[in-house]
Write a structure and sequence with these properties.
Rossmann fold
Length: about 190
Amino acid sequence: MNEGHLKFLASPEWAQMLETDLLPWALGVADLGDDVLEVGPGPGLTTDLLRQRTSRLTAVEVDADLATALAERLQDTNVEVVHADASDSGLPSNRFSAATCFSMLHHVPSVEIQDRFFAEVHRVLRRTGSFIGSDSVDTEWLREFHADDVFVPVDPDTLGGRLEAVGFTGVDLAVLDYKVRFSARKP
């Protein structure tokens, strides 16, 4: 992740957007339950909000420095930080009541790896577990914002089918300006 992007994800502006826009939507479309998986927490602003709404939160972060910093900051809380590739997490099958990913899918370097990630989330969710997320769509200004960074935006026209292909049902998508929001359920 480039420096400008990382700064934004740790900013008060991003925190405000999460609290007033993203979190109310997420809580409105799914019950998080007691054991939540968060993928791609970055500096952890979403983690701070999610951990207040569940008994147990596991945050999977691929970046070693971000994972270490988040683990140190949230030591002795209800959060476990795991440094791993979320497309092959090594976490137990059928464990989580819900899984989330917010503004991280476009950092996954290929569509194929994104699909492996979707399959992995399906594997680790309990029966009837919810998968909720949001991500950027392809716009010129977002491409510029991601200069010198991985930017593989999710195509909203194919996302539903990709989630269904790995076993999710009840897929719901909404495209809003520069983002797509989705929810799905493991049957």
